[in-house]
Amino acid sequence: MITNKHIAVLICFWVASINWGISQNTPVTIYSLDDCIKIAIKNNLELKIQELKANTSELGFNKSRASILPSLNMDYNLGMNSGRSIDPFTNNYINQELTFSSAGLNLNLTVFNGFKIKNEIKRSRFNMQASEFEIEEAKQNLILNVTLLYIQILNNTALVDLSESRLEISKSQLDRVESLYKNGAGNPADFTDMKGQYAKDQAGIIMAQNNLKIAKLNLFKILNIDLDFSNTFESINEFLSSTNYQLSANEVYHDALQNLATFKSKQLRINAAEKGVKVAKSNYFPEVTFFGQLNTNYSSNAQVFTQTGTAIIETGDYINIANQEHSVLRNDPVFKSDEINYNDQLNNNLNSVAGVSVRIPLFNGFRAKNEVALEKIQVETSIIELEQTKLNFKHSIEEAYKNMEAAYQQYHILTNQVKAYEESFRVNEVRFNNGVSNIVEYITSKNNMDTSRLNLNKSKFEYLLRIKILDYYRGI
Questions:
Q1: Terminal CA-to-CA distance of the chain, rounded, Å?
Q2: In 136, 148, 332, 427, which residue has its Cα 20 to 30 A from 90's Cα atom?
Q3: Rounded CA separation 32/217 (Å)
Q4: Residue 116: pLDDT over 70
Q5: Which helix (H) or strand (E) holds 462?
Q6: pLDDT recorded at residue 42
């Protein structure tokens, strides 16, 4: 009879089968170091911000270069006026509503300003070039960070493998001791000690797996991609060789000065600051500017008068002829008024102005002097920043080089230590299985072997890490 319990078991088995099938069909991505570097360069947000800053510097350079061109501006006004005002057509006071309009074209061209524009263009060019090298510097730093995180993942992966190997040995020995304990042939303390060792190795695996997950998390963060702990990573087959690193610390530092973008960008910042001093000094020189204007206007009150004939009118005066008064008459022309259209007024009222303006600085509250002093301080600051960067790199290179040499020496020493402890553990395991030695000697021997393996793995990846750092300093 099939009960509800049986049905539940079948459903669980069916769901587990489906999940197993899906997991079997899901491809696992294997990342190489080159893959991670390419992804980081494409996706990293800090690098994108640096690229936007470089675009800003390029636009600043284009702006300074365009300042050498003349400025040409046009203005146009249209409005309505009521009440007492000046007629723009006759320049007489009127007290009526009128519509007015004006248009103008202004041209300004700087002829000389102490080479200010020229030096601003050069300063902007240096800043633009420095920004381009700063992008390269950001890429180099990003590649180094990706490489270090990648190596950390490989290191933690190896630690997980070592931890699993430790647990496997402990499990095998625990099963043997447990069997003896259940049959009453073994020491009960051996069984409990072995259970403690097995728990310790289980905890070691959990810690190693967690460290691996954190290392992957840090790498995926800098790659700016979705996190998937199932993805794996290729090994780097350039660990230790029989010979030590071929270059000296001074040779690495010399290559860094020649190849790293950070030194080039900071030198360009110095060049830009020096041009800034010349830009500030231009305030001491006169500024010569050519200007030109073209103006016109319109008024709805403007009219044109056309003579259509003459008319005899009384003047209001009289003359006496033979004691008889006669009115004085005058023959006046008769005019017809017509409004002047918009286009005709604009054409008729055209006027132009052209000239040269010279501005000579006599006193400006020491503004020019202070600006020059500030720019000189910026030059000194840029020089000190470059020297400080050189000093920091030299110290970091020497430190990385010493750590690399120590890791290299430790690796060869620890290799012999691992061989010795592995042989010691083999002997103690045989002795313990045959009842010749006790559990303390066995666990001590096992821990010595496990610790030496972990130290060897650490020194191996420490050496690779330092090699990669030195390669970074060389610009590789």
A1: 73
A2: 332
A3: 16
A4: yes
A5: helix 439-473
A6: 92
